Amino acid sequence: MVWKEESSYPENPKIVLKDKHQTFKYLIIKEGVYPPKHKLKYTRRPAKYPISHGYIVQTMYSKKNYIVECSIDYIDDIPLYQIRFGKYFEKLVESEKSTSHAAQLYCEALTKDIKNDEQAKSTSRLSGPLLFGLGKRVLEFVEEEKEIFFHLNDNIILKQAKFEVNGCTHIINYGKIDKKSIELQTQAIVKSIDRGRISQDAYRSLARLDESLIRAGAIYDMRQEITNRVNKIIPISLVDIDQPASFEPITEESNITNPITVSNVIASIGKGVLKPRNTLHLRISGDGRNVGKKVKHVMITVALLNNLDKLHKPESHYSLVLFPSMENYHSLQNALAPLISDLRFLNECGFYEIGGRHWNVKLYFSSDWKFLAICLGMNTANSKYFCPWCSCNKENLTNIVEYNTISKDMQEIKEAYSSLNGHI
Which H helix or E strand runs over 216? Predict the structure, then answer.
């Protein structure tokens, strides 16, 4: 079969192949790019032309001027042959086997829409390679002008050059520095370091191995900047736990002014967690814990009991006090003095939201026996009177008849804890 070609590609993306019986008109939309050599596929022998990824061509054939759009895309390293047809190319057939199989599926789908048997017979004999423009002549035209790696219309921008001189690696960045992008990247690295508990020395070692990583000095500066921002949003007061605390108690109505806090309150109101004129139930919890083998910390947190569905989630608990020390009465007395004053005011007066809405506050305390006993200034668990809830002593531990119920509530303990038998 002798084919005649008409082409001025790439000045004109149209290519025409014809013989005595049929004519194929191609409109090359995109030549595509070649995958890596170990993934590259070829047409059948004897031609063995390489098959590109992202190849798109519109083909017109037959005297009826049928138009189809053929494309090839590599999916999981396997070429997927697709044929779109119809008035607006709304119909689709595809095959992973070959162009011939895709053409066969297309003919079967097209035959259902053709009433003339003669047309159906002629259509069913379409060549897959010709329909896709993978014939020798078409590919030769395209290959002569085709870029090996990039499409001619791709916007190629050189960002970075890397080279080595006498064992020293040099990196040259081109174009304007995107400070916003670098800032976001640095913040992401700081977040990953904190969450992954990567030490500063460990990150320096990684940065020496990979020159593209941001330098450790920039990471340190970003951490300091984040700390300063957080300190402005959430002020942190430092208290000398070895000395009695001096502070200014709250003397006026407390207002919520932080935008994030306001948005959280509004969101909680919208979900029905907080309702106007309801009381806010705040649980104050405290305990000590070992950090490592030698360092001990004491932490006081607060949680909103109104939102029971999220009460046991970590993000629902907010830190109020954190200091390194043993659990003892004097350190707690000094460290918690400002907090106790603020909580007393909130418990008695509540606070006013922006806009004038008032919220009453009711406080609860949660801890283990040791922490509660220390806060109340009671004796240790091995003392004669050890239980804050009843008058039982060590001699009556086995008397479950007389001391089997709780005889004191939290209000009674709060008002007269210092007069309990033998506790102080």
Answer: helix 216-233
With b for 16 or more beta-carbon neighbours within 10 A and e for fewer, the 333-343 pattern comes to: bbbbbbbbeeb
100 three-class SS:
helix
Dihedral in degrees, nearest 10, Cα atoms 200, 203, 208, 214: -100
DSSP 22-58: -EEEEEEEE--BPPPTTT-EEPSTTT-PEEPBTEEEE
Give the confidence band of 395 by pLDDT, cuts at 50, 70, 90: confident
Report yes or no: 114 and 126 within 8 Å, Cβ to Cβ. Answer: no
Residue 94 has pLDDT above 70, yes or no: yes
Confidence class for position 85, pLDDT limits 50, 70, 90:
very high
Please state the pTM of the whole predicted model.
0.41
CB-count exposure of residue 306 (10 Å: 0-12, 13-18, 19+):
middle
Q: In whole angstroms, give the CA distance from residue 157 to residue 174.
A: 9
* β 358-366/279-291 pair status: parallel
Tokens linked to 25:
């008109």
Closest alpha carbon to 154 in 50, 31, 52: 31
Round to whole Å and give the CA distance between 139 and 48.
11
User: How far does the chain reach from its first CA to its final CA, in angstroms?
Assistant: 111
Helix or strand run (H / E) with residue 372? helix 369-376
Weakest-pLDDT range from 182-186, 222-226, 236-240: 236-240
How many Cβ atoms from other residues are within 10 Å of residue 290's Cβ?
Answer: 9
Residue 337, helix vs strand vs coil: helix
C-alpha 308/C-alpha 297 separation (Å) is 28
What ranges do the domains of the chain cover? 4-145, 160-233, 259-377
CA 87 – CA 64 distance, rounded (Å): 13
**CB atoms < 10 A from the CB of 43, how many?**
18
CATH number of 4-145: 3.30.160.360
> Which long-range contacts link 244-250 to residues 24+ away (Cβ below 8 Å)?
244/333, 244/334, 244/337, 245/334, 245/335, 245/337, 245/338, 247/337, 247/338, 247/341, 249/341, 249/342, 249/345, 250/341, 250/342, 250/345
